[in-house]
């Protein structure tokens, strides 16, 4: 047998022969597996080829009926070594987002460790790897895997006494042209029927090039439509015909009113400068005028050939007026038509939520995001910094929170880090780990304040708290070892005698604070106070804190501490089912007493007793409209709470843009949330969206907003009362599948612009809310043909504004937005193509050819033909699609 020099080096490191015949006593050699060294483990990991393939998401009757809703998928992990390898004392760890139900292999088992961490172990029947002979682990997993990105990266191999090694073939690659992650170890989906359908009733079409072509057919390129469009749209915009235009090519000379600190508008002026309009003594006059008659965020913008005047009552009003001026500027065209704009926001809360707990995102990413939020008049950053997979903020006096809770690595005892999750791998020194130092956080707060943005911190509790729990257990062990039991108990978060068996939605059985012990509340109090100190130092007082309070998994049922608490408390808690509500109520009142308004997710908030809560509460509605999500939203609004819409099927930006298994994101509520869907959202009438949306399987659904009673005559749901309304709208980015800052920007932009549009501006086509109640479905007729036509015309203008103007501004800011996938078809030998945002370039190539700019229908002769979009600046490319 012949070997290359590289293969020979691997063989020498492994201490094995690549030949099938051993020169001495082959039987004895076979009976004694090689002892692994660090070098041989490294060499094996470098050479082992791993392939992950989904066979079907509908394996008929093979699923366990008592798990995963009775649904499962069939997949395979295929391991192929380039050489013989008879080592057997090893384990392979990897992240499997859905639990394995059964393994069809005699040589290996797959064990669940914690969360999504699993390990592959050889059985006693495993006789080693033979060169280029594959070992296939076929298995069934719960529910389904509908995306190629479900297969997490960074499998790693361990052996006793050796350092874990990442299997090279499972590392991510980055595609140079798109900047997107590639998974070379994942076999591409090819069978829509078996791999992309969830059930027999699933009618969602794969977003192939022909499907997208039909979706884009009504869009017409119209640069003029973009010229005057402001994002988000103002209340009133009147063009002054015949007056002329304002030329800003010479810059602007800013005149400030008395009492205005220029620092409050520096960020808005910096955006104008990025567009080529800088401050200059001889520039066009830009006069800011104080007008106390205007609302807190309102402004008036008057543009004339001789200059600009902005009237406002507050820093925010002036900044928003400048943002609208920048919105009228097209890159490279600093000439603006004369006009008058009067404006104020629809909602007082216009937010963006970012999860940095699951996978960390850098301070620089946050500062860039704040810039764009300000540019589009968003005013709340909900920063999710504590969850099961990571704690991301330095807290004075509790160093373990970040020393241990901010990183994941292969330490099964979790003395130095948390267990690996989400494909983070065995090493602590990777970008998905990290935290904000106190100085970092203060910098973020100051940056936000300068852009009129409030930061709402969140450490999720009492569930979703595994990082805190494990960090405080490490603290307990450290102090207990030196005999300081009192100190060790001070911030402990568990009852060590609790025998409750539970599983969270992310498959943890140890992620919940014990709500019956005083040390838990001491911990919460400590964390809030330390965060408040950072806010005070930054000059942005902590006035709102998000408890989280969602998805508590049912701990405490077998806790002796809780049994004693219920037996002896004077808090009115008589049953274990009330403990979750007790925690939220107690922490909410703790916050209230500190002058801080409490906030939480709608499911946890719904468990509380309103009479035991402060009068002011923020509740984020993450209920799915297709699953009666409007009912909880209306119920909580009727309580007088500040209800912020965060509905997943339209406002979760970690969901895929299009129904394509190559698109990133989780997809439990939607597999296709593109910019047009976000733009078309009707937040003022949640149930009316049933007239324009389909459910996750592309089927119609009904939203009943009439008053409903149970059998005893008790009201179980009713419309929103007259005089009640929602407080705001918030987009969400959860980061389970989002590892890099670039990928985070890809998921957020350009959907953030559509979020801003809906949060700031109420469109004329939105169905008015009916406080008497109504039934909404595809045929109920409230969303009239006239309103639909107005919506389509509005989207036509917005799509052109993105393609001809706004995405170019994101390029100038270095934002890695998503370039749309291209719609295309071939008929009679001619390729026709289109794109969701007219104005962006399209390229195509025939088999084996070079990329060519698409200018119009063109003859093609060599299949396959590929198409892709081009970013506004002509540099970055979109994901390539085949045209069949």
Rg is: 29 Å
Number of helical segments?
23
Total number of beta strands: 39
Mean pLDDT metric: 94
Portion of residues in helices?
Answer: 25-40%
- Give the oligomeric state: single chain
Query: What's the overall geometry?
Result: globular
Strand order of the largest sheet: 20-21-23-24-25-26-27-31
Strand content: 15-25%
Separation, N- and C-terminal Cα atoms? 44 Å
Content-based structural category: alpha/beta
The biggest sheet amounts to: 8 strands, parallel, barrel
pLDDT < 50 stretches: 1-31
Describe this structure in words.
This protein is an alpha/beta fold and 884 residues long. It has 23 helices and 39 strands. An 8-stranded parallel β-barrel has the order 20-21-23-24-25-26-27-31, surrounded by 6 helices. It has a 6-stranded mixed β-sheet with strand order 12-19-16-17-15-14, covered by helices on one side. β25, α17 and β26 (618-621) form a beta-alpha-beta unit. The chain is globular. The two termini are 44 Å apart. Mean pLDDT is 94; it is low at 1-31.
Features of this protein?
single chain, 884 residues, alpha/beta, six-stranded mixed β-sheet, 23 helices
Outline of this structure?
With 884 residues, the protein is an alpha/beta fold. The protein contains 23 helices and 39 strands.
Topology summary:
Layout: H1 5-14, H2 26-31, H3 38-47, E1 49-56, E2 72-80, E3 91-95, E4 100-104, E5 108-114, E6 117-122, E7 135-142, E8 156-158, E9 165-166, E10 173-174, E11 181-182, H4 192-196, H5 209-216, H6 223-227, E12 236-239, E13 245-247, E14 252-255, H7 266-274, E15 284-290, E16 299-304, E17 307-312, H8 315-328, E18 335-337, E19 339-343, E20 349-355, H9 363-375, E21 380-387, E22 390-391, H10 400-403, H11 438-449, E23 454-461, H12 466-481, H13 485-489, H14 518-538, E24 544-548, H15 560-568, H16 579-593, E25 597-601, H17 602-606, E26 618-621, H18 629-638, E27 642-645, H19 648-651, H20 675-679, E28 703-704, E29 708-709, E30 715-717, E31 728-733, H21 741-748, H22 751-760, E32 775-776, H23 785-812, E33 823-827, E34 830-834, E35 841-845, E36 852-853, E37 858-859, E38 865-870, E39 881-883
Helix pairs in contact: 1-3, 7-8, 9-11, 11-14
């Amino acid at each position: 047998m012949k070997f290359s020099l590289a293969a020979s080096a691997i063989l020498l490191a492994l201490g094995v022969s690549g030949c099938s015949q051993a020169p001495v006593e082959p039987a004895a050699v076979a009976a004694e597996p090689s002892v692994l060294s660090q070098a041989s483990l490294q060499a094996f990991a470098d050479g082992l080829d791993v392939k992950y393939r989904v066979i079907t998401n509908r394996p008929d009757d093979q699923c366990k009926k008592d798990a995963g809703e009775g649904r499962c998928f069939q997949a395979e992990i295929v391991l192929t070594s380039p050489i013989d390898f008879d080592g057997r004392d090893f384990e392979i760890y990897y992240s499997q987002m859905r639990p394995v139900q059964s393994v069809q292999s005699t040589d290996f088992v797959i064990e669940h460790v914690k969360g999504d961490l699993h390990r592959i172990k050889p059985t006693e029947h495993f006789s080693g790897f033979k060169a280029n002979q594959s070992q296939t682990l076929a298995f069934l997993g719960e529910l389904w895997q509908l995306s190629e990105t479900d297969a997490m990266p960074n499998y790693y191999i361990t052996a006793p006494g050796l350092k874990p090694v990442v299997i090279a073939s499972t590392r991510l690659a980055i595609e140079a042209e798109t900047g997107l992650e590639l998974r070379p170890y994942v076999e591409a989906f090819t069978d829509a029927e078996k791999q992309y359908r969830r059930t027999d009733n699933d009618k969602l079409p794969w977003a192939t090039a022909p499907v997208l072509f039909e979706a884009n057919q009504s869009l017409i390129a119209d640069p003029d439509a973009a010229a005057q469009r402001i994002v988000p749209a103002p209340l009133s915009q009147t063009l002054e015909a015949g007056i002329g235009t304002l030329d800003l090519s010479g810059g602007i000379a800013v005149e400030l009113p008395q009492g205005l600190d220029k620092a409050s508008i520096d960020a808005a002026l910096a955006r104008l400068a990025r567009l080529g309009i800088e401050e200059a003594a001889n520039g066009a006059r830009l006069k800011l005028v104080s007008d106390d008659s205007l609302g807190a965020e309102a402004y008036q913008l008057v543009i004339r050939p001789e200059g600009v005047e902005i009237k406002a009552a507050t820093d925010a009003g002036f900044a928003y007026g400048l943002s609208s001026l920048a919105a009228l500027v097209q890159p490279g065209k600093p000439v603006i038509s004369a006009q008058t704009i009067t404006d104020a926001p629809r909602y007082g809360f216009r937010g963006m939520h970012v999860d940095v707990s699951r996978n960390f995102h850098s301070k620089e990413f946050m500062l860039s995001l704040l810039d764009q939020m300000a540019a589009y008049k968003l005013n709340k950053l909900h920063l999710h910094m504590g969850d099961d997979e990571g704690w991301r903020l330095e807290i004075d006096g509790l160093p373990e929170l970040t020393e241990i809770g901010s990183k994941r690595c292969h330490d099964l005892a979790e003395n130095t880090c948390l267990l690996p999750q989400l494909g983070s791998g065995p090493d602590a020194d990777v970008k998905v780990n990290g935290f904000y130092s106190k100085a970092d956080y203060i910098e973020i707060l100051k940056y936000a304040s300068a852009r009129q943005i409030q930061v709402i911190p969140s450490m999720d509790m009492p569930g979703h708290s595994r990082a805190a729990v494990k960090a405080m257990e490490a603290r307990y062990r450290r102090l207990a070892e030196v005999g300081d039991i009192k100190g060790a108990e001070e911030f402990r978060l568990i009852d060590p005698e609790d025998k409750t068996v539970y599983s969270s939605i992310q498959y943890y059985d140890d992620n919940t604070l014990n709500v019956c012990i005083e040390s838990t509340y001491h911990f919460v109090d400590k964390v809030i106070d330390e965060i408040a100190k950072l806010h005070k130092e930054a000059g942005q007082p902590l006035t709102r804190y998000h408890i989280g309070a969602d998805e508590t998994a049912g701990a405490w049922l077998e806790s002796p501490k809780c049994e004693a608490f219920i037996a002896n408390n004077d808090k009115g808690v008589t049953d274990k089912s009330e403990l979750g509500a007790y925690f939220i109520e107690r922490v909410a009142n703790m916050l209230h007493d500190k002058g801080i308004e409490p906030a939480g997710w709608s499911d946890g908030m719904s468990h509380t007793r309103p009479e035991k809560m402060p009068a002011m509460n923020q509740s984020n509605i993450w209920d799915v409209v297709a699953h009666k999500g409007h009912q909880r939203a209306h119920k909580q609004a009727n309580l007088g709470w500040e209800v912020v819409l965060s509905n997943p099927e339209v406002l979760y930006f970690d969901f895929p843009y299009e129904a394509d298994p190559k698109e990133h994101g989780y997809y439990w509520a939607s597999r296709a949330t593109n910019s047009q869907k976000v733009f078309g959202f009707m937040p003022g009438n949640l149930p009316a969206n049933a007239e324009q949306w389909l459910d996750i399987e592309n089927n119609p659904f009904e939203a009943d907003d009439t008053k409903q009673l149970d059998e005893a005559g008790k009201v179980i749901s009713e419309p929103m009362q007259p005089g009640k309304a929602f407080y705001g709208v918030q987009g969400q980015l959860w980061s389970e599948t989002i590892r890099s800052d670039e990928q985070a920007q890809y998921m957020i932009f350009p959907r953030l612009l559509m979020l801003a549009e809906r949060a700031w501006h109420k469109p004329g086509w939105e169905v008015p809310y009916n406080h008497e109640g109504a039934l909404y479905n595809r045929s109920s007729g409230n969303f009239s043909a006239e309103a639909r036509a107005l919506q389509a015309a509005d989207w036509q203008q917005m799509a052109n504004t993105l393609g001809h103007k706004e995405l170019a501004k994101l390029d100038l800011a270095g934002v890695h937005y998503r370039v749309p996938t291209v719609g295309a078809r071939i008929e009679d030998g001619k390729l026709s193509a289109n794109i969701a945002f007219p104005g962006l370039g399209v390229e195509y190539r025939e088999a084996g050819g070079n990329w060519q700019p698409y200018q119009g229908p063109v003859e093609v002769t060599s299949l396959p033909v590929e198409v892709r979009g081009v970013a506004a600046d002509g540099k970055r490319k979109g994901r390539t699609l085949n045209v069949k």
